[in-house]
Amino acid sequence: MKFDTPAGTNPIDRLTVVGKPTDRIDGPKKTTGTAPYAYERHDVAANPAYGYVLGAGIAKGRIASMDLAAARAAPGVLAIVTHENAGKLGKGDMNTARLLGGPAIDHYHQAIAIVVADTFEQARHAAGLIRVDYARAKGRFDLDEQLRAAPLKGDSSGEGSAAPPIERVGDFDRAFAAAPVTLDQRYTTPDHSHAMMEPHATIAAWEGDKLTVWTSNQMIAWAVGDLAKTLLIPKENIRVDSPFVGGGFGGKLFLRADVVMAALAAREAKRAVKVALQRPLIANNTTHRPATAQRIRLGCAKDGTITAIAHESGSGDLPGGGPETATSQTKLLYAGANRLTAMRLAVLDLPEGNAMRAPGEAPGMMALEMAIDEMAEKLGMDPVAFRVKNDTQVDPAKPERRFSQRRLVECLERGAREFGWDRRSATPARVRDGQWLVGLGVAAAFRNNINMKSAARVRVSGGRVTVETDMTDIGTGSYTIIAQTAAEMLGVPLSAVDVRLGDSTFPVSSGSGGQWGANSATAGVYAACAKLREAVAAKLGFNSADVTFADGQVSAGGRQVPLAQAGDLSAEDAMEYGDLAKKEQQSTFGAHFVEARVHALTGEIRVERMLAVCAAGRILNPKSARSQVIGAMTMGVGAALMEELAVDKRFGFFVNHDLASYEVPVHADIPYQQVIFLDEVDPTTSPMKAKGVGELGICGVGAAVANAIYNATGVRVRDYPITLEKHLEKLPATAMA
Amino acid sequence: MKPFTYERARTPAQAAAAVARTPGAKFLAGGTNLLDLMKLEIEAPGHLVDVQDLKLDRIEKTREGGIRIGALVTNTALASDDRVRRDYGVLTRAIVAGASGQLRNKATTAGNLLQRTRCPYFYDPNQACNKRKPGSGCAAIGGYSRQLGVIGTSDACIATYPGDMAVALRALDATVETVNSAGAERRIPIADFHRLWGDTPHIETALAPGELITAVTLPKPLGGTHLYHKVRDRASYAFALVSVAAVVQKDGSGRLAIGGIAPKPWRVEAAEAAMPQGAQAVAGRLLAGARPTRDNAFKVPLVERTIAAVMAEAKAA
Questions:
Q1: A695 is catalytic
Q2: Which of A304, A472, A493, B82 would you label with A192, given CA atoms 20 to 30 Å apart?
Q3: Is the domain defined by A2-35+451-581 classed in CATH 3.40.718.10?
């Protein structure tokens, strides 16, 4: 099915199942431990051996020699695979660094060996017996230093955010120079780790030249393609299965070392092999969100009209990698006739940078929305009013191009009312509660919507419906919204729908990334259901185009037949997209409000209350969508207050590479969260009239926290995370005991 | 993980003897720190002597009016004991500020005293660490040292003792009771229990090889207001940047021990005399000779500020 004209009325609009706050249909499995994650697939391969991955102990250089003798002789060891016996390997399109290193080492903890043994403990012990001599080379590990001579570089995150190397609209320099009120500030965000609960894990088994991997991956078809390219085998010989994913956040978009090493190990050991990347490896072995150094310049008229806006961002990556597209949203979020965006990319020999939840916008909005707050203060304007004043209903670079839907102003104003924004003191550091300084902060939320081709197969048999697609559920609720879609389309209760996901033998879906999954994957199911409805109608002898599927019955023209009488029918189709997204800009909007407290003496920061108001098309399941948004808000608090992969610039690695030292928020950090979805349907996105919402929740929230802290203390910290030492000695004078 | 042998001891002296006679042997109690370190091969004992059957899990009154806490009393049991909550509130507050409920259910009093540093370079076997591998150097010096020590450190090691419970025990003048393989008992004041690193950061306590902690005793209650303020980057389940254990009397005198800054709970009795003069005077004396790194220089003013917060809270109590 091709979607190239805005959707009219369709069966989804009945909203008897879609749009209802529905419990996850996979919830009971999750809560009873019967939704097996990759490493727990005890039924799929008989007698698997265990693999333990050895990571490189240096960041840059070569393996001078490896002594495997003691490891090979250790009890239980079945095989060891290194670059010396792995055979020729290719590299996947999505990978920057090789997934098996050696003799050259590209980054710290790059996999250089896998030891296979009868038990996990034997494999781990033997891995510790491998002796590696390295010849270290000098590496580039300091982003600020490397950015000094870094070239301009454009790129697309592949997930909705994109920017050319440099883009000018109007004459920024002249407008900025002429502006009566200006701001020119530098903001930094650090490297972030996805820090998902489930480590990257795979069971691999060969049958002849056919390989099956049971793994944890967001994008099944990408994994198949890149695994084929890496192992240099036909992709027809590969099956990838990933029905449950214990958190991804972009860290499992791509083929990673667990899959490749398990496959190589299974081939060498002639036995199924299971591998989970060890927690201390994950930060440096896998991908991360790259650090950014951003400069924002704003010029305003005295009435608060933005006349000049510039956003430049620098980031780094391994040779051949890409920039963090942190300037993308600045092209679209606010009005202003004179604009400049630019990105620079430095070469770094740190681990591979890549997508993490809302790549581009998440760090870009942390900077932009702090700058907007600063400018509002310079203008003496309320930060909500300043944003409202500079709203735009068109793409500022192409005024003929409108937003398909844009309710930013409504999000801000509704949020201000609900949150009690009128209680905010415009002057910072004025509100105290005992030893605590209290502040309120706001930020806009913005994230582009993208639609991806997505296919599904739907079968009806005896009145029960089965949906198969390689779509993944990474904790987001895909199972449930797909079941809701099929139930709505075919007029059956949710309990009559079975959903099977994540298997590469199923039709290729959009996968999960870039907040495209919900709208795209359900639209693919819609297409398959529409085709199936035709087949059912034909089989039951309905000629009319106006057939209703409801309550298990198929009816038209006064005739009603139970769906079950259609027997066993199936249909497969994909939803493909025309150029509607080019004609109109499809984006999602929101507003984040935060109340934060700062201890006047110790500088400790605690978030007290948070509200997100989101306008993101039809909300298919308000319950799972809310979970997505509060999760994203929580991640935004992490980015604002604590998350930072600390770089050792001497040795070139992320030092805090476990969950004890890379801190993410715990329950005690997040006392109260509220989410409001505005009523919105966007007929330009798909017949579902939905858009993404999961990543909208993280965009801007860090800045809202930062702005609340500033409002509490009067101290502006522009380097994330805002840890207490960055404002400690500048806090307002307090009587010391 | 290196293969090891395992036995369960039945008496404290038997346990001490078993460890003393087996090179590379270790006691195993709750295992919340040791087992993690073994999985990472940072600890590689060839033999474990499990002490969980030693019946050292009771809290009793002492003749001196204090309490004697068995070495195997869990953190949860200790923190929730009625006498401890009533008479030694700083200890309850310190314990519940640490780890998680699950860990506190397993962690023991003796084991908690012996928990090892959380320096990230200690945890990464690719990096030089004099504590993990004597003589290999210290990668933390000149590296990422935000969490590390500012006082009592050395050119060989800048790690901290990471715990909370011991900080309160230091404020309370606890005594550590031990037995050795010959059955000889010893009482070690908490002030002398943890060592400064000096040139031998791998030697962390006053315990001799094979010497087993049997109990921790507390003197009679001090009265006053008991507070524990733990400053950290998130609200729970994180090690202290700085913590302050305080017992403050109505007249403003009292005791202060500081966590998160040194190889041991840091207490300078002479500094406490300055408490009526305020936090600045106390902190100046407490931290005389501090040698912070660029990353952790903030801990020096943070100690003063946290003491000020605690003293203000005590005054308001």
A1: yes
A2: A472
A3: no
**With an 8 Å Cβ cutoff, are A728 and B126 in contact?**
no
Which of B120, B237, B302 shows the shortest C-beta gap to A661? B120
Q: 3-state secondary structure string, B194-261? A: ECCCCCCCCCCECCCCCCEEEEEEECCCCCCEEEEEEECCCCCCCCCCEEEEEEECCCCCEEEEEECC
What are the phi and psi torsion angles at A415 (to 5°)?
A: -65, -40
Contact pairs from chain A to chain B, CB under 8 Å? 112
pLDDT tens for A370-391 read 999 999 999 999 999 999 999 9
Question: What value does the CA radius of gyration of chain A take, rounded to a whole number of Å?
Answer: 27
Calculate the CA A303 to chain-centre distance: 38
A668:B278 CB<8 A? no
Count the Cβ atoms, other than its own, within 10 Å of residue B40.
Answer: 21
Nearest-Å Rg of the Cα atoms of chain B is 19
Structural contact between residues B71 and B59, judged by C-beta atoms closer than 8 angstroms: no
Q: Which residues contact A676 (CB under 8 A, 6 or more apart)?
A: A414, A415, A418, A611, A612, A613, A614
Q: At what angle do helices A517-539 and A478-490 cross, to 10 degrees?
A: 30
What pLDDT, on the 0 to 100 scale, is given for residue A400?
96
The Cα-based distances of B119 to B116, B128, B160 in angstroms read 9, 12, 7
- Cβ contacts of B307 on chain A, cutoff 8 Å: 737
What SS3 class is residue A49? Answer: strand
Q: Are B201 and B131 in contact (CB under 8 A)?
A: yes
Domain A401-449+586-736 has CATH 3.30.365.10: yes
Residue A169, CA distances (Å) to A30, A159, A341 in order: 50, 24, 9
pLDDT in tens, chain B (317 residues): 788 999 999 999 999 999 999 999 999 999 999 999 999 999 999 999 999 999 999 999 999 999 999 999 999 999 999 999 999 999 999 999 999 999 999 999 999 999 999 999 999 999 999 999 999 999 999 999 999 999 999 999 999 999 999 999 999 999 999 999 999 999 999 999 999 999 999 999 999 999 999 999 999 999 999 999 999 999 999 999 999 999 999 999 999 999 999 999 999 999 999 999 999 999 999 999 999 999 999 999 999 999 999 999 999 98
Q: Do domains A2-35+451-581 and A401-449+586-736 have the same CATH topology?
A: yes
Cα–Cα distance, B45 to A233 (Å, whole number): 45
With a CB cutoff of 8 Å and minimum separation 6, the contacts of B210 are B16, B17, B19, B20, B21, B25, B180, B181
- Asked whether the predicted pLDDT for residue A735 surpasses 70, the reply is no
What are A424-458's pLDDT values in tens digits?
Answer: 999 999 999 999 999 999 999 999 999 999 999 99
**Inter-chain CB proximity A650 and B233 less than 8 Å:** no
User: Would you say B158 and B149 are in contact if contact means Cβ atoms under 8 Å apart?
Assistant: yes
